[in-house]
Give the backbone structure.
Amino acid sequence: MARADSDLDAVSCLHVNGAGPARGSLRVPGDKSVSHRAALLAAMADGSSVITGLSRGQDVQHTLRAVERFGVMVTDAGDGRVRVEGPIRHEPDDVLDHGNAGTGIRLMSGVCAGVDGLSVLTGDQFLRRRPMERVASPLRLMGAEVTGREGGRLAPLVIRGGGLTGITYAPKEASAQVKSALLLAGLSAKGRTTVEEVHPTRRHTEEMLAEMGARVSVEGRRVTVEPGALTGTDMTVPGDPSQAAFWAVAALLADEGEVAVEGLYTGYGRSDFVGVLERMGADIDFDLSTGLLTVRAARLRAARLTAEDIPGIVDEIPVLAMAAAVAQGTTVISGAGELRAKESDRIASTAAMLRAFGVSVMETEDGMVIEGGARLRPARVDSHGDHRIAMTAAVAGACAAGGTTVIDGWDSVATSYPAFAADLVRLTGAVAGSGA
Ligand code: S3P
């Protein structure tokens, strides 16, 4: 078995030989949500924007390639800085391929709705199965023509944009992607666009639009944008809290674990997993002025997570479920039906992963019940094309399961965290290699 290095970024099957506690400090990739928005808003804005610390994952690279199709020049300086020269000059000159990126295709749908002309958006086999009607319906109400395949799983998606009118809309899902698509479309609509959220979600779009000169206001769960132009701005992308969550749980899975993650995003709605782990008894410091997160091993107890908790931890459930598996007591997660529409059916894929490690778990329609106190055994896990399942299995295999854990579909990790295997080896001393 080879030591993990950059060769392991794209292997389809990863073997991890468990070692023990995770110890050390690191920086994680630039925040994926912020990176998509930085690329899209810079493309829409007048003038040039220099983005520092953009995610190098495939998802964001797809967004960068897509904005080029609108005549926007993107120059990668190779030193962590990417220059984007907006604004959008014409309808896209080819199909926009968003790979695996739900955020990419949904936010881009909002952009395309505002562009005069025809756009065709698609993605990989997993993305083409994900629901798009949630953005298509309100964009139609604004005046865009949106069509696609039958059954609401629309991609490839065809949008004829332009001539929009602002609306007030209350999506039935708590979804920052839907909210953001409508706010981006609203920039070129006649009149204001208001989104009323069922539960508040991450606010990156609102924050970044305001920084680029848009008139945007937030009153409780109502977000309103006025039509107007954006001005190119230099931006620095902070570290991704959702990626830090893997290292936080890694530190908690074995005695004497201690991990520090530097430079994380500290704004609204992204680090609720810190509070959940604290409720479970974890020993954590999160410095909101620097974004330094420090986690030390502690005895964990079960948690009860309900619909209000979910938007703030929507991407962290697989790894929190792994923490629940080793905690004392029974963890109940409910109100999380949206997880069935993620990169995989994340309720089913998380439950299957836990079972493979020997955990007793019951799937419900909108969540799961996890029996804690498990002694994890080495597992063979299928990521189902979902990076967060793969990374959760890797930390469990490295820190808690002993023996060799095998992860099929490891290449999904390159969508968001290409150097994950290398960081895992450095922090845990585990040996990782490719296999079959
Ligand atoms: C995201 C919003 C969430 C999240 C996704 C990123 C975003 O999706 O799961 O990984 O950047 O807006 P939903 O808005 O569909 O819940």
About this structure: The chain has a mean pLDDT of 96. Residues 239 and 400 are 26 Å apart (CA to CA).
